[in-house]
Amino acid sequence: MLHFVDLHIKDDLDYVTVYEGRTPIFEEDVQRIRISGFDRPPNITSVGSYLWLQFTSDAESNDKGFNALLSYIHIRDIFLTIVEAANITSPNYPNQYDDNADILWKVTAPSGYRVVLHFKYFITQQHKDNVTVFEGRAPEFDKSVIRIHESGSTIPSNITSVGSYLWLRFISGGQSMLGTHTGFSAQLLLADIPVIDLTLTETANLTSPQFPNQYDNNTDVLWKVKVPTGYRVVVTFVHFNTENENDFVTLFEGRSPDFKESTERKKLSGSPRLGSFTSIGSYMWLRFTSDGGNSIALLSPGFEAMLSYITIREITLENPESVAEVTSPNFPQEYNYDDILWRVKAPAGYRVLLHFTALDTEPEYDFVTIYEGRVPDLERSTRRSRNSGYNSPLNITSIGSFLWIRFTSDQNYQANGNITYTGFRVLLSSVRIPGILLMTSETANLTSPKFPRSYDSNTDILWKVIAPSGERVMVTFSAFDTESGYDFVTIYEGQTNDFEEAVERYKLSGSSPPDNITSIGSYVWLRFTSAGDLQSCTSCSGFMAMIGTVPIRGEHRTTVEFGKSRYIGTNMGKMLRLVPPPPPLMMIQTYSIYLSQDR
């Protein structure tokens, strides 16, 4: 919120311009007000979390300028439940709302539901006082998009959010015209997202409402398609005819069942070329929307699609010496429209090394996308690189034992004439994860490559550190100098030997040595990565760390005798946990002894 305390600037020559935005990118903001003179404007509240002020003066300015206070206010939250609906109104409704009002509500539906906004009453000052509705698949306002911006006395049609989140902003000007403007009254409802579960049936048909007859205006339907784990959704359109550039089918794909983590894949309208679309993972969403002005003269029956699924192609590197090859279809001949996903698995304790020997795809249309993961589930992987064009990327080493390769080509392939593209070829092999096995009270030194000289670009090394049972790993950095924001030391910790179960603890970058780091268990992994040549640091020396062990705090061993049996206990705080010796004991009994503070 911006409050001007004082304003003295030369009228029509010097200005204070205020911009507001939902994202931190200045190029995406909008101008809110431009001020000049001596009259202080009303308080200004930004639409989102960002506001910019620009002060400009001419060559002969001699006024005092301005003084303003900045503060912030919370977005009003409305959480919907499946039990009852909610109501929302403009301030003072059904009486006249105040001038200079600016309120933003955030409406959240339960997971698996969408928000339905139904206006029952709507009268605002035309072109002066506005209601703006935003929708989003994620809870962050800066990821939302504007759905409507309305003023006047026409009640808007029902609005159904794309996901579980909807924002409503009411803003009024500073001078009300004659007449009564009572604002708006609306009801907030829930709409469930129907799920088409192909784990129960191999195929299904999906059509727009009333197909093959004309669909209705102001339709907004969202379907979720789910297939078995390890498979991908295939949507094949057998008929498609909507009002061009007004009514749409939008496809979203995801690696997890959460819609807010999905990405938009394709937006279709009119009479496009029929074909298939394959999701990256086991989930796909289809949204059908029609506007309020469908032409009656032209029959638009909508769409019909067949839903099915295909498997992810598996490549297993059986042993450390194994090498595998992956190519685009027909390589080295030209490829056709396609969407293929391979999963590559390295032996336990190894990582996948991917080496491009050829890359020749239509730039900005056809892609080879690489994902990496520590577990075999695609939904828990992260995207590593997205490659298109002619230049072969540098080698890629996966973080763990799993790597995915996705090749996608656009349906408009070779639309530019006689140019042909041959696709790609990669070689896959295994890289061992070096291990550092520590003994009690033993230390080891670990450095980045070439330390203290500058390390190379595009470096990716992973070390595994193992402490004795019952002890923890301590990492002490004596030197740390990496390219901030580009080159990282990432530390994972685990209580078992399995990297799949480890969790990321720290991601370090820059030139300040971090504090000592002590693991939760006996296992630590350190990964050092440096960026490509464009972001390489020619003067960064990398890092040096001492790796050692520390006992679990407060632990000591105690022997307790019960009759003829001796029990070994580990004191963790105040409770003594007793463990019997190995057989030949016929009966195992466990006793707990609570120790007082002075014992």
UniProtKB/TrEMBL annotation:
PROSITE patterns: CUB. Keywords: Disulfide bond, Repeat. InterPro entries: CUB_dom, Sperma_CUB_dom_sf. It comes from Strongylocentrotus purpuratus. The keyword Repeat applies. SMART domains: CUB. This is CUB domain-containing protein. The lineage of its organism: Eukaryota, Metazoa, Echinodermata, Eleutherozoa, Echinozoa. Residues 75-187, 185-310, 313-431, 434-550 form the CUB domain. Transmembrane segments: none annotated. It comes from the Eukaryota.
